[in-house]
Amino acid sequence: MPILQTTDLKKYYGDEPNITKALDGVSLSVEHGEFVAIVGTSGSGKSTLLNMIGGLDVPTSGKVIVDGKDLSTLNDEQLAIFRRRKIGFIFQNYNLVPVLNVYENIALPVELDGDKVDKKFMQEVVRMLALEDKLNNMPNNLSGGQQQRVAIARALISKPAIVLADEPTGNLDSRTSSDVLGLLKVTSQKFHQTLVMITHNSEIAQLADRIVRIEDGKIME
Ligand SMILES: Nc1ncnc2c1ncn2[C@@H]1O[C@H](COP(=O)(O)OP(=O)(O)OP(=O)(O)O)[C@@H](O)[C@H]1O
């Protein structure tokens, strides 16, 4: 069974005649451990799709099933729990908590869930992302690439069903981008982590197992 399945997913904004079909019937299957890049021009519907998969927004029609769960059956509270346990988010702007140090930022999703950090797994993740000597630093003392590595560690630490990354290297120079992306790919592979990433950088998309192209809210074959 795929870890993620969307069926005829639609998201419309506004009403006729000024309707925007941000997603217009997207059916997508992603297998466990797969790395999928979603590419497309600005306004093609990439972020809308990611928001639906991550339970951040509700579709107009169609289904999203993550790890066997149909998201339309969840109420707001259940959706919040679903996001915390099942989805790791990586954003362009890192979204680290400025008053927490690196270790605390990485541990946050697990602790919010009332759970204890798996120390051994933490060590492994931190080592793979070369953050061992940064654990006591505050985010604003780190470079952009280092901050994004912290965000990657935070996304992986709860062993989510899927990691969703929205233009994760959008704020990084090209050399740092390839370093960070390389690390994201290697750590995902090592932990058999499913990864769905938006990018409009075709070089970065080449790193994925599969590229899905979206135009005008539809998947292009
Ligand atoms: N809240 C909203 N209200 C109205 N229209 C919206 C809303 N969110 C997105 N749209 C429209 O839906 C379409 C798809 O937007 P989306 O942000 O998914 O594109 P994108 O491919 O992620 O673009 P970019 O690469 O620029 O981030 C666009 O035409 C956008 O203007």
Describe this structure in words.
The strands form 2 sheets. This protein has a 6-stranded mixed sheet, with helices on both faces. With 221 residues, it is an alpha/beta fold. Helix content is 33%, strand content 26%. The chain contains 7 helices and 10 strands. A hairpin with a 2-residue loop joins strand 9 (210-215) and strand 10. Helix 3 (102-112) packs parallel to helix 5 (144-156) and helix 5 runs parallel beside helix 6. It has one domain (4-220): 3-Layer(aba) Sandwich (Rossmann fold). Bound molecules: adenosine-5'-triphosphate. Adenosine-5'-triphosphate is lined by residues 13, 20, 22, 40, 42-48, 200. Adenosine-5'-triphosphate binds next to strand 2 and helix 1. Pfam families: ABC_tran (PF00005). GO terms for molecular function: ATP binding. Belongs to the ABC transporter superfamily.
Q: Please, what is the CATH homologous superfamily?
A: P-loop containing nucleotide triphosphate hydrolases
Class from secondary-structure proportions: alpha/beta
Measured as a percent range, the helix fraction is 25-40%
Low-confidence stretches: none
- Sequence of strands across the biggest β-sheet: 6-7-8-3-9-10
Global outline? globular
Total individual domains: 1
Report the top-level CATH class.
Alpha Beta
Under the CATH scheme, the architecture is: 3-Layer(aba) Sandwich
- The fraction of residues in strands falls at 25-35%
SSE sequence, one letter per element: EEEHEEHEHHHEHEHEE
Termini separation comes to: 22 Å
Number of helices: 7
Kindly identify the CATH topology. Answer: Rossmann fold
Bound ligands: adenosine-5'-triphosphate
Average pLDDT value? 95
Number of beta strands: 10
Rg calculated over all Cα atoms: 17 Å
